[in-house]
Each structure stands twice: as structure tokens, then as C-alpha cells.
UniProtKB/TrEMBL annotation:
Stretches with biased composition (Low complexity): 352-366
Protein name according to UniProt: N-acetylglucosaminyl deacetylase, LmbE family
UniProt region (Disordered), positions on chain: 352-381
Originating organism: Brevibacterium jeotgali
Range of residues in the leader sequence: none
Length: 515
């Protein structure tokens, strides 16, 4: 995968909790992943007594959380990450270096986060929204990402910095006008009601062993936006959990669960949900549905960049003073000019953005359809009906082959003498069952579909049954007899299928039981 993806987050730890699995997946798939964090989380509470001295020390906590973020990025394989206000693209666009600080929050009667009555002068939410958006626009113009990922409009649980990050990201993309709406796609975090319920379910197996407090009501806002991407991140769950655990002042990880400073237990999400937001249509960035999608599918919607037009490289971000600051390395002058142009007035940008095409359009004027990427779209497990139908046809062919070979092979045996007594070794049955197990594992791992697995077993058993009907064959010969070995061969495929189904759960079963 040759693609650039920009994640925009408000505080250290948000990137790991909400999108850690997707980040790890994209890195593993070969994409260039850039994480842009707006603040250093100076207003966060501190877990545990070991680092309790950082509570209330905004400067000290900020420096510590920089180190936590650097460790989390190493866990998911990201080498490009920095803080808004101090990136090279902003400097080249004429912005002075500055820090945006954590705005803080208060819990409302509705159980969600709200803006506090007062906040520091340097807080993200106290800053000019236009400046925040233009700084992000400078980063986007220089990086030229295929995909931007950030929060939904509700901020997940309502945190004002999350909401501001969403609004600024949408505004920044709209500043790029029609060209940006064609070149870049925007995914925003979504929280389907059923996923929220599973996340906070205290009856989940293993929750009682964590010592976490059950939630009286979910703090996450369940939304009704159409989900375009349900990214299965189970293969990257280890990296995600390690990244979360790196934020030790904010997150406690216990097995498949975690808790923030309030001690409320939540399940670590094995599926991360996103809406495809049409920022080119309006400033509200209405969501568009993309059934059964993944981030790889969304990346296919953005046109390929010609060779030599990819964004410049970012230096690894660590605590200030260790790596000389945060940002990208030297970029061509033309790139810097593009960033400066993107940082124009918001009025002109909004006017240009309003003329943008919808985010789903890949046939805008001047953009050739054949210019789109044609990357491999294979998935480890596709639950769509077309994939299931193809899997059933595959299972039919494999089942007939295994059924025929096994039926002719299962009666073979030899006799050995043990302690003076003859012992029959049914090696033919063992070979037939081994062939059956390999076939079941093959289709199960390939499709992760209970239906496909059962179809394979049924075809093999049906083939064996057919060979037990002498009237169907010339000479009325029995291939599958009434012997014990034949009875085992007749019924074992369905028994083995049941075992394999439990060992390799279907994709739909995963989504029904895990967030």
C-alpha cells in the first residue's frame, strides 16, 4: 500500500485508545502514517501514587506525556508524529511557534464532557478557531494525505478539545477547495449504539477479574451516523494494548480491558468504527455510507499521487530537547509555497471549499479515473454475501475432491502384532481425516465463515454417503461400507467442522460479541 494517512488527535492517549489498531494496521500494510497531536494533555488527571507529583504541574505533566506518546508511537510502528503549533509546515506557512494546551473539561448531568467555565489562555479552545484550522491546513497542504482521520462532531464523549479538533480538521480540508475534496478522504470516529453497549458491558467474560468499576451509564456518546468503516483490528490488538499501556498516567490496561483515571472499566475495542465524511459538500461534513468497508477501501477512493509528489518526511517526535524539536525535514520550496497558499484567509477558503465535489466523487474534472490506485483489495476475512457465495463454491469443489479421495482411501489399513495379538492400524482413515482437517482449516482461515465451513463438511459427508449407496454405481460395489471405519468417515466431517468453527470464529460472530 502506497498511501499517506494523517491522524489528527487532541491529546496523547487518544490516538491509541480510539485508533491504535487502525494505525498499527496501516503501518503494517505499508502506508505512511502521520499523527498530529494538538495538545500535550496538560490538564489530565494522573493515575497512581508513583507519578502523583505531576498532578497539577501542567509543565511537568506535559513533558512526561510527550515521552508517553513517543513510547506509544513506537508500539504501533509510527515514526512521523508531532504537536500542532511547532511543525515545519506551519513555520514555512508563516506561523510562529506556539503551544496549544489542554482546555480541560467538566462532567455534565448528562454524563458527558463539557467545556469548563474557565480555561488557560493558551488552551486549544481559547485559541482563534480560524488559526487552528489554518495551521492544520498548512500541514495538510504539505503532507497531501490520501486520508485524514479524526473525531466525530460529538468528540466521542463530548470533550471540547475533541470537538475543536474535528471542527478545525473539517475547516482545514475545506480550505483546500475542490482539489482537496478530490485528493483526500476524511474519516471521523463513529460510535454505534451496540458497540458502545459492548464496550461498557460489565458482564463481559473476565471483567470481574480486573477490579475496575462498572459504568452506571456509558460516557461515550452513541451516535446514529452511517458507519462506512468497521475496521477489524484484532490482528493488531497486542500493539494497540501496548500503545495504550504506554500512557501510564492516563490509562490502566488489564487483559482485554482498560480504565481511565475514573476507574470505569471498558473493553479494548477490537473493531474501530468510522464514518466517511463529505467535507466537500458542506461545513457539516455529512456522513456517507460505505457498506462493509475498511480503511483500505476508503484509500482506493482517493486518486494516486504521481511519482515525486508525496509529502515531505517528518522527524521522529520525542521530548523537546532530545530531537531538536518536532516537525518535518526540509521540503522543496514549491511545497512550502503550497502550504503558505493553503494558509490564506478563511473567508476565501470557505468560498472555494463550498464549490468542492462530494467526498465520494473520483471523476471530478481534471482527475482521470485510471489514475486511481489499484491496490490489492484482498482481506483476511470478508463477510459480504458475495464473498460468502464465492467461499461456498470454493468449499463445494474442495469438498468433492476431499470426499472422493477420502472415501477411496479410508478403508486402507495394515496389521501389526502386539504382544502376540494382531492389531489393525487404520492408516487410510487417519490420512483421510487429516486431509479433512486441513481442508476445513484452509477454508475457515480464508473466509472465517461458519456457512462456508459447514458447506465443506456437508459436501464431504454427502460424498461419503453417496459412495455408500451401491445402486448408484456400476457393479453395485460399496466404497463406504458398514464398518466402524466407514461410520467414522461418514460422520467425522461434521464433527470436525463444529470443532473448527469454535476455534476460528466467524467474522460476524466477532462483531456480534466484541466492539
Amino acid at each position: 500500500m502506497e498511501a499517506t494517512v494523517l491522524f489528527v488527535h487532541a491529546h496523547p492517549d487518544d490516538e491509541s485508545i480510539a485508533t491504535g489498531g487502525t494505525i498499527a494496521h496501516l503501518v503494517r500494510a505499508g502506508a505512511r502514517v502521520v499523527v498530529l497531536t494538538a495538545t500535550r494533555g496538560e490538564g489530565g488527571e494522573v493515575i497512581g501514587s508513583e507519578l502523583a507529583h505531576l498532578a497539577g504541574d501542567r509543565g511537568g505533566l506535559a513533558a512526561h506525556r510527550e515521552r508517553e506518546l513517543a513510547a506509544a508511537m513506537r508500539a504501533v510502528g509510527v515514526t512521523d508524529h508531532c504537536f500542532l503549533g511547532s511543525t515545519d509546515p506551519e513555520a514555512r506557512a508563516g506561523f510562529p511557534v506556539r503551544r496549544f494546551e489542554d482546555s480541560g473539561m467538566v462532567w455534565g448531568e448528562d454524563g458527558h464532557a463539557h467545556a469548563p467555565a474557565s480555561m488557560p489562555d493558551a488552551a486549544l479552545c481559547a485559541a482563534d478557531p480560524d488559526e487552528v484550522a489554518r495551521r492544520i491546513a498548512a500541514v495538510v497542504a504539505e503532507l497531501d494525505p490520501h486520508l485524514v482521520i479524526t473525531y466525530g462532531a460529538d468528540g466521542g464523549y463530548g470533550h471540547p478539545d475533541h470537538r475543536r479538533s474535528h471542527d478545525a480538521s473539517v475547516r482545514a480540508l475545506r480550505m483546500g477547495g475542490e482539489d482537496r475534496s478530490v485528493r483526500t478522504r476524511l474519516l471521523t470516529l463513529a460510535n454505534p449504539p451496540e458497540a458502545v453497549a459492548r464496550t461498557f458491558d460489565p458482564q463481559a467474560p473476565g471483567f470481574d477479574l480486573t477490579g475496575f468499576t462498572p459504568a452506571e451509564a456509558p460516557s461515550t456518546i452513541a451516535d446514529g451516523v452511517p458507519v462506512a468503516v468497521a475496521q477489524d483490528v484484532e490482528d493488531d490488538l497486542g500493539a494497540k494494548a501496548m500503545a495504550m499501556a504506554a500512557h501510564a498516567t492516563q490509562v490502566t490496561v488489564a487483559g482485554e480491558f482498560f480504565a481511565l483515571s475514573n476507574g470505569i472499566g471498558q473493553r479494548i475495542g477490537t473493531t474501530e468504527y468510522f464514518a466517511l465524511s463529505d467535507f466537500g459538500r458542506s461545513a457539516e461534513a455529512p456522513a456517507r455510507a460505505l457498506p462493509d468497508g475498511t480503511v483500505d477501501d476508503v484509500l482506493l477512493l482517493a486518486p494516486e499521487r504521481p511519482a515525486g509528489q508525496s509529502g515531505s518526511r517528518m522527524r521522529v517526535a520525542g521530548p523537546a530537547g532530545e530531537d531538536g524539536g518536532f516537525g518535518w525535514g526540509t521540503a522543496p520550496a514549491a511545497t512550502g509555497a503550497a502550504a503558505a497558499a493553503a494558509a490564506g484567509t478563511s473567508a476565501a477558503a470557505a468560498s472555494a471549499g463550498s464549490a468542492g465535489t462530494g467526498a465520494g466523487s473520483t471523476e471530478a474534472p481534471g482527475v482521470a479515473v485510471q489514475g486511481e490506485r489499484r491496490r490489492d483489495r484482498r482481506r483476511g476475512a470478508d463477510a459480504s454475501w458475495t464473498a460468502t457465495l464465492g467461499g461456498c463454491l470454493h468449499a463445494l469443489v474442495v469438498g468433492i475432491v476431499v470426499g472422493v479421495l477420502g472415501s477411496f482411501q479410508h478403508l486402507n489399513a495394515f496389521v501389526v502384532t502386539v504382544a502376540g495379538a494382531p492389531v489393525i492400524v487404520p492408516w487410510g482413515l487417519g490420512l483421510a481425516l487429516l486431509l479433512m482437517i486441513l481442508a476445513l482449516w484452509h477454508v475457515s482461515a480464508l473466509y472465517r465463515s461458519t456457512i462456508v465451513t459447514v458447506v465443506l463438511a456437508a459436501v464431504v459427508s454427502a460424498s461419503a454417503f453417496a459412495f455408500a449407496q451401491p445402486q448408484l454405481w456400476p457393479g453395485a460395489d460399496l466404497v463406504v461400507t458398514g464398518s466402524l471405519r466407514s461410520l467414522v468417515w461418514l460422520f467425522a466431517p461434521m464433527v470436525l467442522a463444529a470443532v473448527v468453527v469454535f476455534m476460528v470464529p466467524s467474522r460476524s460472530a466477532k462483531k456480534a460479541s466484541q466492539p
